[in-house]
Amino acid sequence: MIKATVYVTIKQNVLDPQGSAVQGALHSMGFSEVGKVRIGKYMELELDTNDRSEAETRVKAMCEKLLANTVIEDYRFELSL
Amino acid sequence: MIKATVYVTIKQNVLDPQGSAVQGALHSMGFSEVGKVRIGKYMELELDTNDRSEAETRVKAMCEKLLANTVIEDYRFELSL
Does the domain formed by B2-80 have CATH 3.30.1280.10? Predict the structure, then answer.
């Protein structure tokens, strides 16, 4: 079994309203040192395979087709046995 | 400036309906090798400080008070200059 950890983040030049909201909330709670906040997704997938290179191809396809919106999001992933 | 990377994940024994939905979607798209899927949040915060130990205390407080719901979620974070 291979475990894939996928990180999906909003591209640098795309507005992140969720991040801005969290930044505002932190400021109003007294955490005035907080600058830019960016929020993304973190996913853990268990894959029923032991072929690392196949897993890499398949996870890339999953990211492109479902897990990330590649118009506005970047993704990266790590595989571990 | 210190950059904090925060990972918020749902606790092991808590149901993750978003993860189940993603698993179902991946199966219906032909990714039948996908087992358990767990979805969490990934946050990048810029902190206007250079005091690492102070930043650690402050980010811990932010997680406890706002970023994570510690009843059902775990969190961990990394700091980098």
Answer: yes
